[in-house]
Amino acid sequence: MGSRGYVEAEIxxxxxxxxxxxxxxxxxxxxxxxxxxYVINLGDAGVEVAAEGPEDEVxxxxxxxxxxxxxxxxxxxxxVGYKPYRGRFGDFRIDKSRxxxxxxxGVLPPDIGICxxxxxxxxxxxxxxxxYPFTACAxxxxxxxxxxxxxxDRERTHMHRFPMCGECSREYHDPADxxxxxQGMTCSVCGPQMSLYDAKGSLVATVDAFEEAAxxxxxxxxxxVKGIGGIHLASIATDEGVVVELRRRKNRPSQPxxxxxxxxxxxxxxxxxxxxxxxxxxxxxxxxxxxRKRGALIADGVAPGLAHVGVMLPYTGIHxxxxxxxxxxxxIMTSGNRAGMPMAITNESxxxxxxxxxxxxxxxxxxxxxxxxxxxxxxxxxRRAFLRRSRGFVPDSVRIPMKTGIGFAVGTxxxxxxxxxxxxxxxxxxxLGDITNLESLEYEEKAIYSMRDLLKITRNPDVIGCDQxxxxxxxxxxxxxxxxxxxxVIKSQHHHAHVVxxxxxxxxxPDEPVIGVALDGxxxxxxxxxxxxxxxxxxxxxxxxxxxxxxIAMPGGDLCALYPYRFLISALTKVxxxxxxxxxxxxxxxLKGLRYGxxxxxIVLKQARESSTIKTTSSGRFLDAVSAxxxxxxxxxxxxxxxxxxxxxxxxxxxxxxxxxPEIVQKNxxxxxxxxxxxxxxxxxxxxxKKEDIAAFSQYYxxxxxxxxxxxxxxxxxxxxVALSGGVFANAAITKIIFDELExxxxxxxxSLTPVGDGGSAQGQLCIGLNSVM
Length: 774
Prior knowledge:
Blueprint: E1 6-16, H1 22-32, E2 36-41, E3 47-54, H2 55-68, E4 74-84, E5 92-94, H3 116-123, H4 166-172, E6 194-198, H5 209-218, E7 223-226, E8 231-236, H6 240-250, E9 259-260, H7 264-267, H8 275-282, E10 288-292, E11 308-312, H9 317-326, E12 331-335, H10 347-353, E13 360-364, E14 376-380, E15 383-388, E16 397-399, E17 407-409, E18 419-422, E19 425-428, H11 438-454, E20 463-467, H12 473-485, E21 489-492, H13 494-505, E22 514-524, E23 530-538, E24 543-549, E25 552-553, H14 559-562, H15 565-573, H16 579-586, H17 590-593, H18 597-608, E26 615-616, H19 619-629, H20 641-650, E27 664-667, E28 670-673, H21 676-684, H22 691-717, E29 721-725, H23 732-742, E30 747-749, H24 761-773
């Protein structure tokens, strides 16, 4: 560039650089370095900067931008082009965003928990934002739930209906102010307001809606509370009677409720968070984190039979104000919906959908543009595992090896999320729940097209990915989208999609073989059976089944998932026990484990021996059967309940107390981990060992057996990469055992950006589909 004189630099910055106070940051840095020019948001989620001045100051400016960017931002790329100095600018300014038609190449802003400075303003009686629940600045507040399109400017957010007052406008335009260029800028004079309504929808006359709401909560009432991504049902978490009543009204017999606590001190009153869990809890993403329970301050009914409880900290001023008035240890804060339905997001839907559940409604008059449930994660031996990836993380993208092509994927059926890809990135939608009715299917369709529009994708997709299960409603949605767009539907085997999802996140090339371990409850197999304990040799285009759990009949099909004792009985028929022996072993359980007692037992015994009865290799069913044997769960009331209860008592058990080595055989060129003999041994010796030891042993047997198969396959096939996926890998003990057995000799891949369970399947479907057509 010649002498170190004056230059003009054209700078393009990509990453998470919109909606995070990045333009004001650039402005202040440019002014500090004496530069002139501009900074603007682009419609592709990137930022463009023109900076002219001394060359050394421009380069110093670039170094400082990379080193000192706002905490919530994430710079992925900086492209710089130099031009001769022309002296075009008189100062440095933030210009109006340029909304050209390019598809998004940067990272869209997720919702950001309220920052300490805004909380301080809310607590300062001299502040204009004293106790104002919608306080936000350029560094915090709603983003994904607030935005309808890019670039991220006020007119394209839910704030477009709230013109700024004079004071807000002045601070919004003041470069020295923290709220400079903050699109969520508002105050009590010009912004949204909270109101309290009774069960009939009548406004409750009160000076302080939060004070009135707190009083109602302390009286044992159930409140619907509107936040930023949806409406929660809130109640006191220390009152067993209230918890029982909430369960009755919501028809949720035992599924755990999430809690919100005011601060870490309160959490430590009923749980023992590790340092890594504290870090996750206090991050700006504010997820629900599963933490080990302790003491008896929280009602037993919050998480019945479980060792962990899901907890989050307040992430909006609304929550902060409620706790300030309440001074409670914790609130139940669960999604405001009826069973199987999407969470309510409008005041009208809250009044109708939650009628008969909520006693009062604490609502505001600001729109929620994109519904978004809370994220749920746990830390497994230092590794983050998503159970639900949503608020605070969506719509962060994952780089995938497919650099071109546009794809949609609809995911599976349970705990679902969809996905959209463009420009080598996969954008997973928010958590969508179980897609088992028309309302949830419409929600998924809307989420896919909203993500498409937000990404500014204007042409039809090249492919649509879905599961090969013929009965999934999501597969029907894929066919509908195909008819509308002309894009082909590529159907993926369930566990292959699991494995490819992990490979895509970790950057594994599409043609590079990996050993994929997929452990879950159920997935439709290529042989018509139900798979769920799989060791695959996989690329993106195909897979071979190298090993699996033993095939065991499922009398009544899915009834074995609902009533796991049926599956235990079926396993006993496979080890050559006659019916009288099985009746003797099961006599103390039949009335509890089978709805119709002895009559049902006879039917199960008959069906288990019929060759036409559908078979399964499910690791979930194996764990469920042990849970039923130990009388932990005779009837499953929510997905994963038996195995989760089993894990909860296994924490205090010693697997080495039972000397029963994993039995592995070869059949038809594939390894099988036998499980029927194991269940038989445990059934006959259930009174010989502690329940905790049996629970721990069952997890160890599964993990050690699968790891042994992987080691054999790796040695035979000379493959070094092993990808772990499936809902069972939310289990901390099983995950740790497999890592301990494999990672000294193999490269173990475990998802940290994508849910370990079915919520991550869409990413795998999408990559399989793109790989097949591009």
